[in-house]
Amino acid sequence: SRYGGEEFSGRRAAPSGEDNKLQALQNHADRPASLIDHLQLQIGFLELDAELAFLARQMTGNIDQRGYLIGSLEEIASALSVPIERARAALHVIQGLDPRGVGASDLRECLLLQLGESDLLERRLIGEHLQDLLENRLPKLSDLLQVSLWEVKEAVGLISLLNPHPGNAFTVHTESAVVPEIFVDEIDGNFNVRIEEGVLPALRISPACSSMLRQEGHNPKVVDYVRRKIEAARWLIHAIEQRRRTMLDIAQAIVDHQVGFMRQGPGHLSALTMQQIADEVSVHISTVSRAANGKYMETPYGVMELRRFFTGGVERADGGIESRDNICGMIKEIIDAESPRRPLSDAQLTKRLQQRGLDIARRTVTKYRERSSIPPARLRKRH
């Protein structure tokens, strides 16, 4: 590409002894911490004029975590106070960097940037028929492009290797360990709940403060101040103990409802609502919601968030309620056994579940299928 008679390339520069290259290398870590660092490191090794290199570095700030360009080229050029042609040249530099596909404005451009010039069929599929491609309409694409279904499949196989979010590889994920606050112990066939004492601090009134109230000669204002602080501390200790008792009551009520899970595992969760637990423990439903939020329980089948035990359900033919998680499991089981050439529609899934004794509507099946991140039938089809 050219701008104002200048020629530039997105390829790496040939090795040389120039100080600026050595300085660029020394000023960067061996493994860049972010996508922006990774892009700017590469820009430092390119044979670019100073202004273009500066613009390219500035423009990396408009690359999001996925690797896509934020905003239009016109907006970026205006913000940088440069002609749009110069901004386009800087963007071309970025789009020539690693990872391939970075700097695209949308999915279509991202995928095209990752293809070679000889990938003509793949370019037509992405450039002209992306929606049909996303919806797995391979026979239609074969007719539209006047090529065999085998050729379309081969091209789709190559396209499936492209990365729609090239920047994700540089996203740093920080995960903290989950520390359960509640533990379930099986004693003589019964499941009992306990709260780990080390999680909640042991609070007490300082003896030194208490003795101040009994000593004579203290300033009455000081005594009154200490008395009020001790009363506040007692209230806090009482509130924490009350929270602990409420948490125990709520957790025990949950476990009593989920004995099937405790004995046999995730496939045996019972339908349960927060209102049911609130009624049993004699608290407001908001209290149950707060108690379950961010709290974890160690069970015979691993650590689970309390909210996982609250699951809606569907009525069975025998009058019982099948939990939402169990229904999602049934849907996945049925789909795993289907023919990839003739995947089951949501209406057919509904009939299969009804044959298992569930009074369930098709829209509910659709909702549960989507909740399980299972694509619809047309996207599961293999031609």
Compose a concise summary of this entry.
This protein is of the alpha+beta class.
What this model shows, in words?
The chain has 383 residues and is of the alpha+beta class. The chain is 50% helix and 8% strand. It is built from 18 helices and eight strands. It has a four-stranded mixed sheet with strand order 4-3-5-6. Strands 1-2 form a two-stranded antiparallel ribbon. A two-stranded antiparallel ribbon has the order 7-8. β7 and β8 form a beta hairpin. The N terminus is likely disordered.
| Overall radius of gyration | 32 Å
The arrangement of helices and strands along the chain is: EEHHHHHHHHHEEHHHHHEEEEHHHH
- What strand order characterises the main sheet? 4-3-5-6
The largest β sheet comes out as:
4 strands, mixed
Could you tell me the strand content as a percent range? 5-15%
The span between the termini is 41 Å
How many distinct beta strands? 8
Mean pLDDT: 82
Output the number of helix runs: 18
Outline: flat
> What class, by secondary structure content?
alpha+beta
Q: Unreliable runs, pLDDT <50, ≥5 residues?
A: 1-18, 28-32
DSSP helix fraction: 40-55%
Describe this protein with a few key phrases.
383 residues, alpha+beta, four-stranded mixed sheet, two-stranded antiparallel sheet
Secondary-structure blueprint of this entry?
Layout: E1 2-3, E2 6-7, H1 19-26, H2 35-43, H3 50-59, H4 73-80, H5 84-95, H6 107-113, H7 120-134, H8 138-145, H9 149-159, E3 182-187, E4 190-195, H10 207-214, H11 220-257, H12 259-264, H13 274-281, H14 285-292, E5 296-299, E6 302-305, E7 313-315, E8 321-323, H15 324-336, H16 346-355, H17 362-371, H18 377-380
Parallel strand pairs: 3-5
Antiparallel strand pairs: 1-2, 3-4, 5-6, 7-8
